[in-house]
């Protein structure tokens, strides 16, 4: 019995370690949980390069990055996709990436290329915006708020749900938008007023959107939620019965949205540098870029790529999104979150 | 010369025998568990804790960190005590109901109470919201009845909903552990007390309760540790106003990347768990009683008198209300579609649809991570089966050894509970820094999932088996042996009939722990082998009515799979047990 057990334990372990050098070559790509792509595209890449691509989903953007940092001496993957501009400095400071100046960077506007040394290459972007329930605003004869300042008006009391920046990346982005707009000196005053006006705080996007937001299937009590500017398009595409118009839209005032840019990089210590570079090129290529909107509900950075109809029709891009320098974010994020927690939650 | 030689030979053999019986035999049952826990628990945990708590890193901690640690410890403790008490208030009468009464639909109701245990918190939150949320049935009904403008009940984001969810999740532990012991009590003990003139209350407090103490203790320590390490319930239902140690560890490790503080909090949580387990073993040692257990069937009867009928009806209704109502809202929601008429959302109209289920089978967006539902069921069941086999194989020898504890057992016993008290986030990071390189480059292997599940299932398996094994009086075995039964036959005729039920309980726990994906949340996942909870989470990560509907239908599938699994395991006919 004991020996049997022992064998039961050791056998799979030995098999696994013995199988490590696999054929054909395996390229491992570490991603955050929201990553997805079309199967046909990945298969085409695999066939063209005689490689097997394995994806490792590693939690949300922050968790995935921390895992990449903790394993940098023996990396779990060859390529890591999913760091955004709010985490970029942490990734770069910890030196997890190889430099790679992909020729496709020429197709990407300079504004997205936040790392001058090309360790982290931009792949996609999107705006974290306040979504509102069109039907609610119409039924109650309410005008849609036009700015962050509007949200503290009495007519919007108790109508907005936001995510906790300590546990949610859209929540953090919205906090950063207010920091960018009101500056460090007065963003906390703004939040204190917002709190007096009954802003609801929940821990994650799922709860905010599906439990609290009135236009989602959860039918909550708040008609405004911090979500993505592409969420209205997703509502149409994933409607349970065909819709001719989006039930929601984004509030597009100055700095009401925060622009998020997501990056890919080759992990230091990869033994398939050549293939990893090819995969990065593949992610920046027009084909993959045009696949991004309907898979991940983000915008492509490659200027050659065109947008699907659903995006041009139902999603609006923020004309004046808020943004902050990644190094400023990295230096202050913990303090901002702590101060916000003290001002809004306690 | 030759005589001398033979002498040493015999001497050596006796020495070896003495060595075997005094040293090797007591250690043998612990071999599997020690290797397993050493490799997959203590080693990765030590590595990650050292990363955070080495002297160089520790100096980054300051007074504010200690303040935070103290505050979250206080709240964690407070809500865990309240939750555990409430769980017992419901769980003890429920255990009594299942152990003492036979009624129609009993096994179904029993399985129902176990389903919450494996449901992902996202799904439970959706269920509670459909029932008690601002637009839930209760509120809509009350608003309609009393012509109110706003929802009268607002439970989300309160301590109340945290406690309610903990009771919802953990009552099954009390029902299974205490109910199992109760159904095996010798009814003649209580009858004797009654015939000697004791009133029912006195019989309960002086006879039944002392006999049940070991199983009550085992259940309370499990429930308490589960509430103590609560994570999803706090995040999804309690909201940002509440923070337990585990939630704080998650924030510190994953968001702030403050490994020293996360390590410190993990260590506090771990030490607390150890203290609870040590207390448990101490108290257990003082109160262990053995009696001649009976086959469960002899203990059960139909409700005859009026108070009995009242108790039966009342308890069944209460359990149905608590367990069926939040659960039934998921399948209902998975079959209803809201009318597309979005202009008047105040008058929500519902229509029946099977679309969410048929849509599960279509990969509409050609996504590389699309999961056909049967594949997800297969993966979940495969992992669950591996977890059941592995945790029973590892747990049985240890539980047997613990049943007649020596110094070694008393020393090691508390450590068995530690996987439940260890922070899942911390352990997940520990796995990542330990198994990311040969010889144990396991991190990308799908095998790590059942291994992680087994870690959590083991304490349940051991705590289910141990009270049953300990309740067998040695005289029974000796009697059987003196009547000429071989050790094997003694085990088959005496031990097994008593242990069989507890083994099934243990298997159900391992099965549900695995289906519910406990603690695996912070591992790296291989999208090729997605399980049902992962499929549900994937649907809920994007907006849209179709996504929500499909999440609800996947959750319904998960409930059905788990319910059927539990019913099947409990119905297994085991020869010689005279039950089921």
Characterise this structure.
The complex is a heterodimer of chains A (346) and B (580). Chain A has 346 residues and is an alpha/beta fold. Chain A has two domains: 23-125 and 260-307, Periplasmic binding protein-like II (D-Maltodextrin-Binding Protein, domain 2, 3-Layer(aba) Sandwich); 127-258 and 315-345, 3-Layer(aba) Sandwich (D-Maltodextrin-Binding Protein, domain 2), CATH 3.40.190.10. Chain A is built from twelve helices and eleven strands. In chain A, strands 1, 2, 3, 4, 5, 6, 7, 8, 9, 10 and 11 form an eleven-stranded mixed β-sheet that branches. In chain A, helix 2 links the parallel strand 1 and strand 2 (52-57). In chain A, helix 6 packs across helix 12. Chain A is globular. The N and C termini of chain A lie far apart (57 Å). Chain B has a single domain, classed as MetI-like fold (Orthogonal Bundle), CATH 1.10.3720. Chain B has a two-stranded antiparallel sheet with strand order 1-2. In chain B, helix 10 runs antiparallel to helix 20 (448-470) and helix 23 (532-539) runs antiparallel to helix 24. Chain B is globular. Helices cover 72% and strands 1% of the residues of chain B. With 580 residues, chain B is an all-alpha fold. Chain B has 24 helices and two strands. Classes of the chains: A alpha/beta (346), B mainly alpha (580). Chains A and B meet through helix 1, helix 2, strand 2, helix 3 and helix 5 of A and helix 2, helix 6, helix 12, helix 16 and helix 19 of B.
């Amino acid at each position: 019995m004991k020996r049997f057990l022992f064998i039961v334990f050791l056998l799979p372990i030995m098999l696994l370690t013995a199988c490590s050098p696999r054929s054909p070559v395996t390229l491992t790509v570490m991603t955050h949980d929201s990553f997805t792509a079309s199967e046909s595209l990945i298969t085409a890449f695999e066939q063209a390069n005689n490689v097997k691509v394995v994806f490792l989903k590693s939690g949300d953007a922050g968790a995935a990055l921390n895992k990449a940092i903790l394993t940098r001496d023996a990396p779990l993957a060859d390529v890591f996709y999913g760091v955004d501009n709010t985490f970029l400095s942490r990734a770069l400071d910890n030196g997890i990436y190889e430099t790679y100046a992909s020729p496709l960077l020429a197709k990407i506007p300079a504004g997205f290329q936040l790392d001058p040394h090309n360790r982290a290459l931009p792949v996609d972007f999107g705006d974290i915006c306040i979504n509102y329930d069109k039907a609610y605003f119409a039924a109650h004869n309410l005008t849609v708020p036009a700015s962050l300042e509007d949200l503290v008006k009495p007519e919007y009391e108790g109508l907005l749900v936001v995510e906790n920046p300590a546990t949610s990346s859209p929540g953090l982005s919205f906090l950063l938008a207010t920091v960018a707009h009101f500056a460090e000196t007065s963003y906390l005053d703004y939040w204190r007023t917002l709190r007096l006006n009954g802003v609801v705080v929940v821990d994650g996007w799922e709860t905010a959107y599906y439990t609290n937001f009135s236009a989602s299937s959860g039918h909550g009590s708040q008609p405004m939620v911090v979500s993505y500017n592409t969420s209205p398009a997703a509502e149409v595409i994933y409607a349970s019965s065909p819709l001719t118009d989006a039930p929601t839209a984004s509030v597009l005032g100055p700095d009401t949205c925060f622009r998020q840019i997501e990056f890919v990089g080759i992990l230091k210590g990869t033994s398939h540098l050549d293939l990893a570079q090819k995969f990065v090129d593949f992610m920046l290529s027009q084909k993959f870029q045009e696949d991004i909107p309907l898979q991940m509900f983000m915008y492509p950075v490659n200027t050659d790529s065109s947008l699907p109809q659903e995006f041009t029709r139902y999603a609006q891009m923020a004309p004046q999104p808020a943004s902050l320098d990644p190094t400023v974010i990295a230096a202050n994020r913990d303090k901002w979150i702590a101060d916000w927690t003290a001002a809004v939650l306690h | 010369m030759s005589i001398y030689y033979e002498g040493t030979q015999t001497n050596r053999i006796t020495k070896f025998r003495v060595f075997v019986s005094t040293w090797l035999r007591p250690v043998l049952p612990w071999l599997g568990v020690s290797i397993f826990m050493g490799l997959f628990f203590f080693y990765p945990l030590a590595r990650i804790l050292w990363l955070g708590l080495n002297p160089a890193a520790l100096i980054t901690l300051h007074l504010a960190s200690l303040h935070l640690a103290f505050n979250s410890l206080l709240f964690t403790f407070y809500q865990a005590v309240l939750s555990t008490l409430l769980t017992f208030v419901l769980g003890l009468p429920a255990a009594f109901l299942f152990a003492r009464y036979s009624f129609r639909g009993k096994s179904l109701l029993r399985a129902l109470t176990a389903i919450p245990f494996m449901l992902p918190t996202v799904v439970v939150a959706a269920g509670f919201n459909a029932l008690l949320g601002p637009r839930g049935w209760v509120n809509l009904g009350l608003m309609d009845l009393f012509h109110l403008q706003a929802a009268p009940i607002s439970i989300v984001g309160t301590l109340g909903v945290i406690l309610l969810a903990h009771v919802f999740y953990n009552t099954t532990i009390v029902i299974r552990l205490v109910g199992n012991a109760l159904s095996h009590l010798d009814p003649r003990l209580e009858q004797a007390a009654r015939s000697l003139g004791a009133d029912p209350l006195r019989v309960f407090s002086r006879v039944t309760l002392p006999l049940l103490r070991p199983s009550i203790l085992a259940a309370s320590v499990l429930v308490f540790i589960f509430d103590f390490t609560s994570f999803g319930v706090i995040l999804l239902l309690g909201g940002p106003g509440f923070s337990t140690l585990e939630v704080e560890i998650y924030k510190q490790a994953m968001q702030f990347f403050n490994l020293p503080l996360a390590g410190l909090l993990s260590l506090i949580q771990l030490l607390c768990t150890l203290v609870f387990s040590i207390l448990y073993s101490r108290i257990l040692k003082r109160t262990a009683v053995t009696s001649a257990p009976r086959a469960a069937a002899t203990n059960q009867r139909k409700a005859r008198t009026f108070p009995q009928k009242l108790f039966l009806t009342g308890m069944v209704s209460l359990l149905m209300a608590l367990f069926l109502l939040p659960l039934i809202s998921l399948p209902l929601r998975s079959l209803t579609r809201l009318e597309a008429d979005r202009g008047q959302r105040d008058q929500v109209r519902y229509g029946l649809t099977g679309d969410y289920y048929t849509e599960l089978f279509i990969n509409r967006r050609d996504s590389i991570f699309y999961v056909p539902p049967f594949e997800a069921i297969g993966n979940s069941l495969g992992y669950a089966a591996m977890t059941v086999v592995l945790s029973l194989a590892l747990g049985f020898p240890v539980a047997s050894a613990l049943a007649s504890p020596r110094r070694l057992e008393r020393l090691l016993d508390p450590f068995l509970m530690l996987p439940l008290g260890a922070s899942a986030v911390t352990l997940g990071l520990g796995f990542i820094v330990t198994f990311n390189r040969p010889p144990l480059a396991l991190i990308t292997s799908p095998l790590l999932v059942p291994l992680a599940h087994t870690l959590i299932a083991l304490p349940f398996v051991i705590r289910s088996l141990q009270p049953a094994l300990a309740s067998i009086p040695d005289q029974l075995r000796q009697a059987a042996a003196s009547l000429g039964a071989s050790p094997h036959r003694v085990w088959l005729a005496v031990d097994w009939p008593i242990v069989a039920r507890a083994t099934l309980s243990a298997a159900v726990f391992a099965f549900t722990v695995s289906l519910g994906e406990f603690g695996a949340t912070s591992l790296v996942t291989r999208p090729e082998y997605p399980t049902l909870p992962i499929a549900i989470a994937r649907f809920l990560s994007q907006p849209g009515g179709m996504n929500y509907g499909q999440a609800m239908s996947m959750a319904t599938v998960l409930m059905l799979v788990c319910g059927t699994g539990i019913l099947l395991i409990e119905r297994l006919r085991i020869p010689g047990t005279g039950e089921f």
